[in-house]
Each structure stands twice: as C-alpha cells, then as structure tokens.
Amino acid sequence: MTSLAERLRVYVVTTSTGAGHEGVVEAAVAGGATAVQLRAPELDDEQLLPLAVQLAERCRAAGVALIVNDRVDVAVASGADGVHVGQGDELLGVRDRLGPDRLLGISVRGEGDVAAALALGADYLGATVWATATKPEAVPGGLEQLTAVAEASPVPVVGIGGINADNAAEVVGSGAAGVAVISAVAQAPDPVAAVRRIAAAVDGGVRSTGRPGRP
C-alpha cells in the first residue's frame, strides 16, 4: 500500500494564471505528480464546486489525490480526497466537517504550530520554505525551519514556496516528505516537462537520503 508520504511526494497546486486549473491538472497527471491541490480563491463556492467535481473525477481515474484549498464544504461535496487550510482560516471543527476518511492538511509557520495542528486532526503539514509571489503573505522559514518542523512532526511535511526542479532535492533532503509547486508548473513553457523534472529531482533527493520520506 502506498504511504501518505509517498502520496504527497510531488504535489502540484493549481492557479488561474498560466496553464489554468484544468491545464495544471492535466500536466500534473501526465507528468507523474502524486497529488494536486485545487486553489481557486477567485471562484465562489457555486463556481468552484463543478470544477472540483470534474477535477476530482480526473484525478481519481489517474490515482492522484485531489485536495481542495480552504473550502471544506466543496471538498466534501465534490468527492475530493481532502482539504488544506492555513493558519488564517477557521480551523476549529474542520475535522468534524471533513469526516474521518478525507485528508486534512494544515499550514504551519514553524515547529511551534505543530502540536496545535496535530490536535486539530492534521494528516500532513505544509511549511513555507522560500518566498513566493503566489502567496506573499506566507513567511518563509528556509531549509533550517523546514527540518525543525519535520523533526517535530509525526505526520508528513510538504515544503512549499519557491520550489522548482533545481532545489526540490534539497527540500526533500531537509526532511520534507514531498514538495508543493505552483508557478514552477503553471508558468512553465511546457508544464508536463516541468512536472517530470520536479518528480525526477524529488526521486533523486529521496534516494540520496536513503529513506522513503519522513516520517
């Protein structure tokens, strides 16, 4: 059985710019991603739900996990595999609304947030590594903080922020189970090739550590 760490290894986040939501998902599936996050702050729930249903079906057929960003009700109604929420969201009660069978990802600012995220039922954590224009509000902690979060966490940690094929191996080598990428795929001239390069870099980083991903 595939572990959760393995399911989160190459985690592609959609955006309305560049390739667009559907284009990013198609590139992720074709390029060997293991998870996709549908992130569409420009859409309200009524607009987002049919798109989430469509993409959940596409990802399910490909064996790729689909996570919805922020919108718990949309994640449940669409049949997505889970939801990812940040520290600025209403976190209390998310697990109850989501149910026991879907994945709950929670962004953390550092190792000090790990215990609270676990108490809320997090299955995995997200940690910002480097600055990114896509999420300027996220405070980067660098590789050192990523390692601290991974060492404090009994659940997988996904690094995000400024990650591409050139530095993905470093992120995994610093303790992350996987990498999340946005502009490195959505803005790439060839999104499928970009996903493949990132996946190859992550696999190389995993091999160099001698472990399948922490934990």
Flag low-confidence runs.
Answer: none
Oligomeric state of shown chains: single chain
CATH fold category name: TIM Barrel
The outline comes out as globular
The major β-sheet equals: 8 strands, parallel, barrel
What does this structure look like?
The structure is a single chain. With 215 residues, the chain is an alpha/beta fold. It has one domain: TIM Barrel (Alpha-Beta Barrel). 43% of the residues lie in helices and 17% in strands. It is built from 10 helices and 8 strands. It has helices at residues 4-7, 20-31, 45-62, 72-78, 94-98, 114-119, 142-152, 168-173, 183-186, 191-209, and strands spanning 10-13, 35-38, 65-69, 82-85, 103-108, 124-128, 157-160, 178-181. The chain has an 8-stranded parallel barrel, surrounded by 5 helices. The longest helix is centred in the C-terminal third of the chain and has 19 residues, at 191-209.
Which terms summarize this structure?
215 residues, alpha/beta, TIM Barrel, 17% strand
In short:
This protein has 215 residues and is α/β, with parallel strands linked by helices. The protein contains ten helices and eight strands. 50% of the residues are buried.
